[in-house]
Design goal:
CATH architecture of the domain at 4-48 and 217-297 and 440-494: 3-Layer(bba) Sandwich
Oligomer: single chain
Radius of gyration: 22 Å
Distance between the termini: 26 Å
CATH topology of the domain at 4-48 and 217-297 and 440-494: FAD/NAD(P)-binding domain
CATH superfamily of the domain at 4-48 and 217-297 and 440-494: FAD/NAD(P)-binding domain
Bound molecules: flavin-adenine dinucleotide
Number of helices: 15
Helix content: 25-40%
Strand order of the largest sheet: 8-7-16-17-18-15-19
Structural class: alpha/beta
Length: 495
């Protein structure tokens, strides 16, 4: 007799958990509220162009890389078309204040050498910094797919010092310090709060090699969905869960917006934990648990500009580009100032048969949710004229920056679309439109540590709010969630 599992949320967390469980012989059913599955893997199409909304770059896909091994185990490697970014320039960072552009190579030595090229007298410090990050990342068994008891608190205090203080130990050069932190927006870093081990882990993960999905990240969600189907599971879209009914600390059934009821032996929540609290019966958890969860700050949100380019007008760039108004701005991302945007990333995602010209360009700009809070009671398409004017004005500012970077840029634009933190909130039901779920604060790490086990006996948690976000974190949490059902280290041992 197969046991059944019902998963709420068809983002990367829900889909990987579902695919692993389906392979283990569980009868898997996933309920996704949107018309398209994938959450942060979702893409949208305009004029035949597939725009990525969340996941733009991935690491861990080199042979024997952590994510490669998971995808291989799930039988989806051949279904994914990835393009590695340029090894000699995985990222380029341009500072408007002095007009300098730094090109950073991938690989441990490449990374060190490219920075040492700009800061020759700092080579030793750069090497010490990179070595220390690698040592830290290597100690985290979970992130290296090693069997583990993984108690975060077994690590020395250096792991939990603020990332900015960790960086400052290695150099007094303010420009180099800034460059050590250029990936901040990839993990929602905040000065004085983000723990050093997250900085180290994310940096090492990407230094080891970055790729991009050709034609969009939705290929990963489609591949995972096929694996689930091949093992007898089912993924429903347009299935928003509006109530999770609980009796005596056990889920009895789940209700979907269209009125249908679903029940299973086990339930897994793969949505933002605030969203779980919104739909689950209020008696499910002790008040103290709900209050703690609701008090955890979220990572910042973002504003997006999607640009369709005129044919053969703008070069395809095979790496991510970062714009910084000045040194120091990288540690001010969460602050919204009148000079917004002072810092952003942009890229030309690859399409099938990519040639030397880009078809489109995507710009991601960090923006705190508070900026749009006054429109939070509105719905897509009906947010009002004031909101539309505001949005139009933000896009204008972004284009002004692009004019600084590429003279005559406006003439290269065919069509332009934009989205605000409200879009993120509404598409993913992510509290405060947060990009990466809860923020980690090394001054109070316990606050954001959420167990995959809950007081509701047949409910487990997964997804980016638990442990770490992104391709670096969500698949590994999915493994832990699955192992809570099939046995500790049972999946890791198979990988
Ligand atoms: C702008 C942006 C850029 C990013 N860039 C990168 C990147 O380059 N590389 C990287 O590794 N990571 C990146 N990330 C992070 C990555 O996309 C996420 O960590 C990951 O996709 C989160 O997966 P998840 O399944 O935990 O959550 P989500 O993707 O949010 O999935 C949750 C799913 O649950 C659904 N849902 C919510 N409520 C309900 C309900 N009541 N009933 C049914 N379904 C519901 C949602 O619609 C959604 O599909 C980025 C994220 C964002 C937002």
């Amino acid at each position: 007799m197969e046991e059944s599992v019902l998963i709420v949320g068809g983002g990367m967390g829900g889909l990987i958990t579902g695919a692993l469980l389906a392979k283990e012989g569980y009868r898997v059913c996933i309920l996704e509220k949107n018309a398209t599955i994938g959450g942060g893997l979702q893409t949208f199409q305009r004029s035949g162009i597939e725009y990525v909304t969340g996941m733009h770059i991935v690491g861990g896909f080199h042979p024997n890389g952590v994510i490669y091994r998971i995808c291989k185990y799930l039988g989806i490697v051949d279904r994914l078309t990835l393009l590695p970014v340029d090894a000699d320039c995985m990222d380029q960072i341009t500072y408007a204040s002095d007009g300098r552009t730094y090109k950073i190579a991938s690989g441990r030595n490449g990374f060190i050498n490219s920075l040492a090229n700009y800061f020759p007298t700092e080579r030793e410090n750069i090497t010490r910094y990179v070595d220390r990050m690698y040592e830290m990342a290597d100690q985290l068994d979970h992130f290296n797919l090693r069997p583990t008891a993984d108690d975060l608190f077994q690590f020395p205090p250096e792991f939990f010092m603020p990332a900015d203080e960790f960086i400052d130990q290695f150099t007094t050069d303010l420009r180099l310090r800034d460059l050590f932190a250029y990936m901040n927006s990839l993990h929602g870093a905040i000065r004085g709060k983000t723990p050093a081990y997250i900085h180290a882990l994310l940096n090492v993960f990407y230094i080891e090699g970055v790729s991009r999905f050709v034609g969009g990240s939705s290929q990963l969600s489609e591949a995972l969905s096929s694996t689930i189907a091949a093992h007898g599971g089912i993924v429903y879209n347009n299935a928003e869960v509006v109530r999770i009914a609980v009796q005596d600390r056990k889920i009895t059934h789940v209700e979907v917006k269209n009125g249908k009821h679903f029940s299973a032996d086990h339930y897994i929540s793969a949505v933002h934990v605030n969203e779980l609290l919104r739909v689950i019966d209020s008696t499910a958890f002790p008040k103290s648990f709900s209050n703690r969860i609701l008090s955890i700050p979220n990572t910042y949100s973002a504003f997006f500009v999607f640009i369709e380019l005129q044919e053969r007008s703008f070069p395809y760039i095979n790496h991510t580009c970062y714009y910084e108004q000045d040194y120091g701005d990288i540690w001010q991302l969460e602050k919204y100032t009148p000079e917004w945007p002072r810092s952003f990333m942009y890229m030309t995602p690859p399409v099938a048969n990519q040639d030397e010209w880009a078809t489109h360009l995507v710009v991601n700009l960090v923006m705190p949710y508070d900026v749009v809070r006054k429109w939070e009671n509105t719905v897509t398409g009906k947010r009002g004229a004031e909101y539309e004017v505001w949005k139009h004005e933000r896009v204008g500012r972004v284009l002004d920056r692009f004019e600084e970077l590429y003279k005559g840029f406006r003439a290269k634009i065919k069509k332009i679309y934009s989205a605000s933190p409200l879009t993120l909130r509404d598409y993913y039901h992510a509290a405060d439109g947060s990009i990466y779920g809860y923020a980690k604060d090394c001054q109070n790490l316990m606050l954001s540590q959420i167990s995959i086990f809950t007081k509701v006996k047949n409910l487990l948690l997964t997804g980016q709010c638990i442990r770490l976000h992104g391709i670096c974190g969500v698949p590994l949490t999915a493994i832990s969630t699955v192992e809570a059902l099939v046995g500790r280290n049972k999946i890791i041992e198979k990988l």
